[in-house]
Design brief:
alpha+beta; Arc Repressor Mutant, subunit A; Beta-Lactamase; 2 domains; six-stranded antiparallel sheet; three-stranded antiparallel sheet; 9 strands; 21% strand; disordered C terminus
């Protein structure tokens, strides 16, 4: 049963926006499994709605996964708390806001709100994943994880350079994460996309554990013109969410030194 479950997860992991449809043969080769057992597994998954047949021996993801995803989002308590605060910030400032968590060494976006002044950001839709070393939310989440865990993530996934500004060595990232812990926030200064910056802050639960990160993203020229204001904005917004979740330990050290 455990092996079957593992294989099913491996099958689902093959599907992506760039490869949304697979044949039985392709999946069998990708997983290095016999075609007969692969066909049987895919048929069972289709019967449960996890996959759907699009032709003889061809499959796409099933609609039941969407149902699972909606249930997950609707029952994630901190997402509801964060969305309320995000809506207020977006309404006032008109910039794009994100909410993200760390899963399997990658940032996964679980909420995104765009404002009237927002630029289109295609990489960060709900459910999208990005490497953690290059984004504001990713650096916040890595900064509050043990370095042994961070090092393992970097070894497994590498440090892809999205732009000339992307941090690409573990040593530089370690120094950056120490600054993030000291300041209480992280910045992405055109590290994922030229012309785009963001500032992110941690969200704590009632136990004082960082469970998510919230960010505001905007064009570089607007960020540079009002950097201090945007930093204060996102840190205070994340603090509000944390307090609503039962966290009460005061403002971060950087704020107390202002």
């Amino acid at each position: 049963m455990l092996q079957t479950l593992q294989k099913a997860v491996e099958v689902l992991s093959l599907f992506s926006p760039t490869h949304p449809e697979w044949t039985v043969g392709d999946i069998a080769r990708a997983l290095e499994q016999p075609k007969s057992s692969t066909s049987e597994l895919l048929s069972s998954m289709a019967g449960q709605g996890l996959l759907r047949r699009t032709g003889p021996g061809r499959y796409r993801l099933g609609w039941r996964l969407l149902e699972f995803g909606q249930t997950l989002l609707k029952t994630t308590e901190f997402r509801a708390e964060a969305r309320q605060v995000m809506e207020e910030v977006v309404a006032r400032w008109g910039e794009t806001m994100h909410l993200a968590v760390l899963e399997n060494g990658q940032v996964i976006y679980i909420e995104k709100l765009e404002g009237t002044h927002a630029v289109h950001i295609s990489l960060s839709g709900v459910g999208a994943r990005l490497p953690a070393h290059c984004s504001g939310v990713g650096k916040v989440l890595l900064a509050h994880a043990p370095w042994s865990e961070v090092a393992q993530i970097l070894e497994q996934q590498g440090m892809h350079a999205f732009t000339p500004n992307t941090i690409i060595t573990p040593e530089d990232l370690a120094r950056e994460l120490e600054l993030v812990r000291q300041r209480g926030y992280a910045c992405d200064q055109e590290e994922v996309s030229i012309g785009l910056c963001c500032v992110a802050a941690p969200i704590y639960n009632f136990e004082g554990r960082v469970i998510a990160a919230m960010s505001i993203s905007l064009p570089t020229h607007r960020f540079q013109a009002q950097r201090a204001g945007y930093v204060t904005l996102i840190v205070e917004a994340a603090q509000r969410v944390s307090e609503n979740l039962g966290y009460h330990r005061g403002m971060p050290r950087w704020a107390m030194k202002r």
